[in-house]
Hints:
Layout: H1 2-10, H2 24-43, H3 47-57, H4 63-106, H5 108-112, H6 121-142, H7 146-172
Helix pairs in contact: 1-2, 2-4, 3-4, 4-6, 4-7
Amino acid sequence: MSAGAALALSSFIVPTGSGSSDLRPWLYSTAGVLGAQGLVNLLWAPAREHLSREYVAMPQTSSAGRRARIRFGEEALEQMAADGTRRRILGGLANVGVSVGFLGILYRNEIFNGATWTPSFVDAIVLSYGAVTVVMNVVQMLTSSEDERLRDAYWQQVRMVRAERSRATLRTE
């Protein structure tokens, strides 16, 4: 949020340009996006924050308490993974939209007003950066979040322990 405020203030210092050389709309938009991201991060805390506190506070002195703690932990892992999936998909989509939106803001006269456009080296850098950003966010959406990997690792270990127990039971019979 402070970075957004700094960009908003810097937009008053940047001189007015014409066409795509006027960076002020881009600065305003970037400041707004950074401020919105800060608010979302403050208001939408990850599920692991409150679930971890609940898990640690659960009793573990009796066998029933330990079983309840295990069930709660497994359900919490599922909730955390679901939250990680939502954050991954929504964050990726929002970042792709912002990246494309910034290009629309920067090249608004060329896109919406039919202004002539002569590509320059700076345009190549800006468009390449936008393309790389979009690709990185699509990759983010297609890969597992940390919470999903944590859940998957837990269930893989559970399957391994169960397989070892079943092998040990077969050997003793």
